[in-house]
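Open question from group meeting: does this chain pack into something compact, or does most of it stay loose? Before anyone orders reagents, we agreed to write out a predicted structure and look at it together. Recording both the input and the output here so the notebook holds the full record.
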Amino acid sequence: MEHKDGYYGQFGGTFLPESLMPAVLRIREAFGQVRKDPEFLRELGELNRTYTGRPTPLFQARNLGRQLGGVEMYLKREDLNHTGSHKINNVLGQLLLARRMGFRKVLAETGAGQHGVATATGAALMGMECTIFMGSRDMERQNLNVRRMELLGARVIPVTDGSRTLKDATSGAIRSWSANSRDTFYVIGSVVGPAPYPEMVQFFQSVIGREARERILRETGRLPRGAVACVGGGSNAAGLFDAFLKDPVELYGAEAGGRGPEPGAHGAALTRGEPGVFQGMKTMLLQDAWGNILPADSVAAGLDYPGVGPLHAHLQETGRAVYRAVSDREAREAFRLLSRTEGIIPAMESAHGVALALQVAGQYRPGDILLVNLSGRGDKDMNEKGEY
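Structure tokens returned:
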């Protein structure tokens, strides 16, 4: 996706206190160098192959396809990555960059805990000191991932401000980074934040779409009619969409519709938000008439964020991608259906994408190909309340 000076159309940019600008400019310069450095890319590719387990499989969900009238549904199995989600793709790239820049300390924010686990994992591998900020509500919901992070040697700091979820964890991480940017690298987990982070995260996640496009052409000889992914900040969707932006492929993003359209009951910034500036970027936000950020809510801890990556705001504005809100109920139903139909337990975040794919498939003809990114596995969601 073309962008200029950190902007995607009107969205993006770098809105930070002056004290953080030297750190951001240094990261921007270093990323600009390594993205074209054959040795850096070779090392990242080797880690992806031998440590992460790439390429991840492309699985045809035949049982589900039969229930959908013959639509050919393929699942990109990012849930089979080491650590259980797509987050490791971006983390390894950023940690290699941090190491090349001379950093030995890293910090990160996390919602569902998947980015936190991936960062703690990579930090352990590379011998780095790791601090993770996580909302105290999310720590209760995703206690298994908290224990994993701590076992891996990370220090997990509970954030008790505000809604005690991803928004507040991100704010806590930014405050810590502001005070420690000289010796600490901030590993942002999604295509959000100040430039160059949205572009950088998309770059490291683009391996998802490249693999999926190559594999589906090899197996079927044609492109999918549509591609679907869940969207919180939007990193897995950005990674999937990247390879198909110039193709005649319909792109769909599933937002957190939560408990309903009322303010504070959902996390659907694209379909129910307005443009604004938040956490270093201009994007679509959930906010009131005075510009105050509203709380977000979702059964999926990784989706209850009141903003979205500027790339997705631009894709919606230009009509290149379509975004729809998926309710908690619909996500739970998709979670159960995929588990019982294909024997695959998806992350609750990914279940939003599956739910939207079921809706889209109802508009497709037999034989049409629908690609769904399964961004993570659902072990972490076994304690979520609800009937499965």
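Observations to bring back to the group:
The chain has a mean pLDDT of 95.
The two ends are 38 Å apart (CA to CA).
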